[in-house]
Specification:
42% strand; 6-stranded mixed sheet; 18-stranded mixed sheet; globular; 955 residues; alpha+beta
């Protein structure tokens, strides 16, 4: 067989392992208390919690009406109904489409960062396009693969395609098929535009695959630009042609770039160059001369952003700072000098400063369920230096505080989809009054006007609008007719309403004169001006001005006018967006929608516990693939057969199969249930030879243990029960996880005194605590924190042979000598109760010393390990399209183990030093980051110098 064929087979095997690891991801579960409905639609099965019929119908209406249009430019309708699950309990606004099992999951709470498009439309357009993409890739050579692998075949088919295509093409769909979409937001391309005109434009590899040295945005915008330009230049069906060739010429490596070159005449780099040459011409048209603002934040050398400025006094500003080296924090800027206040968690949007309190809303996880979490109002008290939670376990999104700091207005999107503005008491957090929104519009942002007035940016089915609320009467008034132009950050000041918008193709600050509702433009930012605020004396307008090195805080006089009477009826037209919209000739925002038959029925969870989605004529353990449990790829896949099941609600995962290993046949069954408060893991393996351990007398007349194989097939079974409590707060990841494991095998051990044979069994109880700092982009390990694991193992049916095992392991994280250097120190103690016992328990609880074999013969053992990890270089260098190296890092380590085998024996040591040298890289432009390195180990006490190869993949 030729070398090229060997390479192709190797890539196919690697693609299977990688895609299996990427696709078998559980995105979380909903509370067990939910009762569910389902609706069978012509092309979808919609599953949602009971009580949400109105919300569910809107999703059904949009899904079915866009069905024939979302697939127009990639022609491959799917034949089977596609499951769609609504998750209303989570505050993490998102959506996803998975391969195995095939499903769409939609988190229905809108994002406060949404543009001029309702959240349900945005989700349906974007995620439906992913369904079409996946369906298209299951044609050609991959169509028969379904009969071999089931739904996991889609993961194999997409292995050599790229994420920039998937996500960029989906952004193109949400843009082309509506009046809005991210393709019409100037800020979506702002990072590229700023770098291009700063003469620091990066290579395709760096923009796509990322960097630890520079900020590179995300591949959604990059993909949108490439896919939309290709449609503009080569026709609306170009990606249909490219994907058709991809699935029919898969072995022309690399197949996706080869398909692009075949149909466009350019490789990916050529398409990239032409795309941004076109965009540069478009962006040059937006260049305008204007008076530069006064910059108030420090000058930075590396990418650093200062956002959401608030004036504390004439010399001090409060802002939110973020960069690649550290976590997001609140800072003071005193006459241009920065001073950190505190780190903060996942903040929804702007901060608000009133009466020495800094307010914001923050996502907070629920205790147990992934899709049941909260958005809480918090504040930092500048006088006490403490963060307080004002509204625990609530669903409040954007907020505004009145001038006296007495009341807070918040927006709320309820579980069932109702939108409200709620007034809170700023001292107690108690709700005072609720105001339903007109036409159930989603309140994106709020600002407090005069004492009895609120102003809001709202999104409804017609687009985005500005509203006022007269609170005494509860009356809403429309200030701006619905528009497709995005508006954010409203600010009322002395009868004027300031806000940010991308009306003219660049984000700038505008002012609406409430007396006549005329709108003037206040700033002439080159790349983008955001989040207006007013200085302490009321004379300066503060804002965040985007530049190539991040957001800087700037100011202009509050009465500045760059252009008068701006019209939101004539927004800037984006060439690529208009071109792909013209090709589609359908607009969800203006189309007359056909009603759909909607007859919900109860969805019985017990009846849907199992859903077989994939199978294979070979065997691999899904838990090994997902968790990296196998030693290497060669041991991961075995001869055999298997089936996989996972239900639509992600509560039950099952694997059953047969495999052949070490000249023995095995049957394997594994089941995980996540639908109750405790998680249940069950697994049983039947096959191979069992053995018996018997006591016999040796030549000296002493009884010794001796093993011999029996005729019985080996049975190994394990049942585990655990509860993953999530206590994460602010910028720390916290949790507690109690667990108990029962293990059984029919390997028989003869008891020493009674000489009775017993099957080997044990019970393992454990309690894990963890509390560590979230990692910044450049961190290798957490900067602060610890993990503590306490374990107790006993053998209740083997008390004559075995004692009990007690283990405590503590992992601590410390900052290194330089920012982003990390020190990890691990301490452990193990005690095995050996009094009147004759055998050591054959179970590992402690990690072995690097460079030595594991010590089973231990009565007491103390371990200490230290690792110092740091980055050596971030070269961001490519070797053609074959390799892209993002980072080179090193880990220096020292291990020490102090062991006592028996009560009256001496203590022995195992110690070693060494280092890891690791490259973080991407191969053939695949988005899956790989880490490859070498470990050098020098055992100090005995043994020879050793080397090990290190390899891992991150998904």
């Amino acid at each position: 067989m030729s070398l090229s064929k060997y390479v192709k087979i190797l890539f196919v095997c690697l693609s299977f392992v990688v895609t299996a690891q990427a696709q078998f991801v559980n995105y979380g579960t909903d509370p067990a208390s939910y009762k569910w409905n389902f609706v069978d639609l012509p092309h979808y099965q919609l599953i949602y919690p009971q009580g949400l019929d109105s919300m569910a119908y809107k999703y059904a209406l949009y899904l079915e009406n866009i069905y024939p249009h979302v697939q127009k430019s990639i022609t491959k309708p799917w034949k089977k109904t596609f499951p769609v699950v609504l998750h209303p309990g989570t505050m993490h606004a998102n959506g996803m489409v998975a391969w195995a099992p095939r499903r769409m999951e939609l988190m229905t709470t809108p994002s406060s960062k949404i543009h001029a498009q309702s959240w349900d439309k945005h989700l349906v357009l974007h995620e439906s396009r992913h369904v079409v993409q996946t369906s298209k890739l299951m044609t050609g050579l991959f169509k028969p693969l379904y009969f071999v692998l089931g739904e996991q075949a889609a993961g194999v088919s997409s292995f050599f395609s790229t994420r920039w295509f998937f996500e960029g093409d989906a952004v193109g769909a949400e843009t082309a098929l509506s009046n809005s979409g991210r393709g019409r937001l100037p800020e979506f391309n702002m990072t590229y535009r700023a770098q291009l005109f700063a003469d620091t434009f990066y290579s395709f590899d760096k923009w796509y695959l990322g960097s630890y040295k520079d900020y590179t945005g995300d591949y959604y915008a990059l993909g949108y630009d490439l896919t939309s330009f290709a449609k503009y230049r080569y026709g609306g069906d170009i990606w249909d042609k490219i994907s058709s060739r991809y699935v029919s010429r898969f072995f022309h490596l690399p197949p996706f770039p080869q398909a692009i070159k075949y149909h466009t005449g350019d490789n990916v780099d050529g398409l990239f160059d032409k795309t941004f040459a076109f965009l540069k011409e478009e962006w040059e048209k937006l260049e305008e001369k204007g008076e530069a603002p006064v910059y108030l934040s420090p000058v930075v050398k590396q990418y650093t952003s200062y956002r959401y400025p608030q004036a504390l006094n004439d010399s001090t500003l409060i802002a939110v700072k973020s960069d690649l080296s550290d976590l997001t924090s609140l800072v003071k800027i005193i006459n241009g000098r920065e001073e950190r206040i505190t780190y903060i968690g996942s903040v929804h949007g702007r901060i608000h400063l009133k009466k020495n309190r800094i307010y914001w809303s923050e996502n907070v996880p629920g205790l147990r369920w992934t899709h049941a979490n909260y958005s809480e109002v918090k504040y930092y008290d500048l006088l006490t230096g403490k963060i307080q939670t004002l509204t625990p376990r609530k669903r409040y999104l954007t907020l505004a505080v009145d001038s006296e700091g007495q009341q807070i207005a918040v927006s709320q999107f309820s579980f069932s989809g109702e939108n409200q503005v709620i007034l809170l008491d700023a001292k107690s957090g108690q709700e005072l009054v609720q105001y339903p929104t007109p036409a159930n519009a989603f309140i994106k942002e709020l600002t407090w006007g005069e004492e009895d007035m609120l102003f809001a940016v709202a999104v409804n089915d017609k687009g985005l609008t500005l509203l006022s609320l007269h609170m005494p009467k509860g009356e809403w008034q429309e200030l701006l007719p619905p528009t497709s132009v995005n508006i954010t950050s409203p600010l009322w000041h002395k009868g004027e309403l300031y806000f940010e918008s991308g009306l003219n193709g660049t984000n700038n600050i505008y002012c609406m004169h409430l007396a006549d509702r005329k709108i003037d433009r206040i700033t002439s930012s080159r790349f983008g001006a955001f989040t207006p605020a007013v200085s302490a004396d009321g004379k300066q307008l503060l804002f965040s001005d985007y530049q190539a090195k991040g957001y800087r805080i700037a100011s202009v006089p509050v009465d500045t006018v760059v252009s008068e009477d701006s019209s939101f009826d004539k927004p800037y037209t984006f060439a690529l967006a208009e071109a792909i919209a013209e090709q589609e000739k359908f607009n969800l925002d203006s189309a007359v929608l056909e009603p759909v038959a909607f007859a919900p029925k109860p969805y019985k969870k017990r009846m849907h516990t199992f859903k077989v989605h994939s199978w294979a004529p070979f065997y691999y353990d899904v838990s090994d693939v997902v968790n990296g449990g196998a030693d290497d790829f060669s041991t991961m896949v075995k001869p055999g057969v298997m089936i996989l099941s996972q239900n639509a609600l992600n509560t039950a995962i099952t694997q059953a199969g047969w495999y052949y290993k070490d000249n023995s046949h095995h049957g394997k069954l594994a089941f995980t249930y996540l639908g109750w408060y405790p998680v249940i893991d069950l697994a049983v393996d039947y096959g191979g030879k069992s053995f018996a351990m018997s006591w016999v007398k040796n030549e000296e007349g002493k009884e010794v243990i001796q093993a011999h194989y029996s005729r019985r097939k080996l049975i190994e079974a394990e049942a585990r029960l655990y509860i993953p409590f999530n206590l994460s707060k602010d910028h720390f990841i916290r949790g507690v996880q109690p667990a108990v494991t029962y293990y059984f095998t029919n390997n028989r051990y003869q008891q020493f005194d009674s000489h009775k044979y017993r099957n080997f069994q044990y019970l393992l109880s454990e309690l894990r605590f963890y509390n560590y700092r979230r990692m910044a982009h450049r961190d290798i390990l957490p900067r602060w924190g610890y993990q503590l694991r306490l374990q107790y193992l006993h053998t209740p049916f083997h008390t004559e042979n075995y004692g009990s095992l007690y283990t405590g392991k503590l992992t601590t994280y410390w900052p290194g000598l330089i920012r982003n250097h990390s020190l990890m120190v691990r301490l452990g103690y193990q005690y095995q109760a050996m009094d009147d016992k004759v055998l050591y328990i054959p179970k590992r609880l402690m990690d072995k010393t690097r460079g030595y074999d594991f010590l089973y013969q231990t009565r007491q053992q103390l371990t200490a390990k230290a690792d110092y990890a740091f980055t050596v270089a971030c070269p961001d260098v490519s070797i053609g399209s074959l390799l892209y190296v993002r980072r080179v890092r090193t880990n220096l380590f020292y291990d020490y183990t102090y062991n006592q085998a028996q009560k009256h024996s001496g203590w022995t040591t195992q110690s070693s030093v060494g280092m890891d040298c690791i490259f973080d890289w991407n191969v053939i432009r695949m988005s899956y980051p790989l880490s490859l390195g070498v470990r050098l180990i020098h055992p100090i006490d005995y043994g020879k110098f050793q080397t090990e190869i290190l390899f891992s993949m991150d998904f």
